[in-house]
Sequence to fold (484 residues):
Amino acid sequence: MAEKDMLKFVGVGQAFPEKRPAAERDDDFLEINRAYILAKAEEQASRCSQCGVPFCQVHCPLHNNIPDWLRLTAEGRLQEAYELSEATSTMPEVCGRICPQDRLCEGNCVIEQSGHGAVTIGSVEKFITDTAWKEGWVRPLRPLSDRSGQSVGIIGAGPAGVTAAEYLRRRGYEVHVYDRHDRGGGLLTYGIPGFKLEKEIVMRRLARLEEGGIVFHYDFEVGRDMTLAQLRAKHDALLVATGVYKARDIKAPGVGAGGVIPALDYLIASNRKSFGDSVPAFENGSLNAEGKHVVVVGGGDTAMDCVRTAVRQGAASVKCLYRRDRANMPGSQREVANAEEEGVVFVWLSAPQAFDDNAGKVAGVRAQQMRLGAPDASGRRAPEVIEGGDFRVEADLVIKALGFDPEDLPQMFGAPDLTVTRWGTLRTDHKTMMTSVDGVFAAGDIVRGASLVVWAIRDGRDVAKTMHTYLAARAGASATKAAA
Ligand code: FAD
Fold:
């Protein structure tokens, strides 16, 4: 039982699945980690110390029951491990691949703190669920009761929207998901590149939802094709899970030159190519890094995805300019290491000052050297310019990856009564997750601001519960009225 199979961290070292060598992976969009073999997954799971207070679970936004599914894996009870893992997550194989585990579960693993190296939780999670798909243990989505008299509309097919859709469909509601893209998945499909998350993984989840009776309406943009009020009139409740898409811009001379492009346009084009779509802006070279000197500005996940995409497209050189240092960047340290292995050069403590415009095309970035000064209001040390530290970097493609803010939803949706916070995110009641408009709920990045997939899944799970409470009360009230 447990103790016999567990606590092996003293004698068994930490081993992540093998990474494909940089020279082999730097020209394709396939995931970079090879899969564990069964024996390795069991061995690595057996390193768990089965703590009384499982900090891994506490620091997982989904509170996944990590110690128990690690123990089941170590004991060779893989199907049970899967069932436990999917009890709290709608897409464990996605989290296993792209959660920043070094900051969440693994970063808080007790044996990491004691210097033994964390249990490789994300890799085991991925292994369990990939095996479940192979073995046919992933059950079809089936409504557990019939509430088809009530329908729910969900705006946004990202992880928050589809998670809520799954839980609400399971409760028996008629569920319609509306998305302005031609495929679901949100940023899982069109933001995050295949080398972190192969597209098939996302498409397989969406197919299961469709087979379970969820109706997807693609190429449908709320605000363009219908106002919020019109959509509200069609459903008993609505969920807004539209994410955040207003790209922050750089204010510097020359920023309007050709070849200075927003990160998401670039990533969407590349992801579309991975699906085999025709993308004129890629084919004509404007969103293609092949043969170019590429400079990416920013230090978050989006910047990391851009630099590594540019490598794979065959860029002549790829540099990343970030105004803070390595220790103070928001992106994952693992991703920086992967990018460096693939040949990306990081120019820490540097910020663009101007872009050289050569006959309408960018030719270089004039940058300033920075240092970290005193902490600002957010508690982070603020970057300051070092006078006289200017330098120039050659560039014929500059990708702006400075983060995202919410779009102006009240204006876009024709819904002035939809209240937003001073950051432009939707204001919701903390308990019910309902917005200022009756029956309209919100979840994911549009409430939190740019965040993580695992938080979007958590919000989708929570909002499905509060929407059910609202809908059940409404159904109860109609039944009472009809009986009176
Ligand atoms: P989204 O995933 O943004 O989905 C929103 C959906 O709403 C989209 O499909 C959009 O088309 C649709 N929509 C928007 N407006 C409308 C409208 N008016 N009408 C109809 N549909 C609309 N997180 C991680 O945990 N790990 C990572 O490695 C990671 N990498 C990232 C890389 C990039 C490049 C980016 C940009 C983000 C990354 N993130 C990562 C963050 C993560 O992707 C988001 O936090 C998460 O996807 C948010 O989920 P969501 O469902 O709230 O929104």
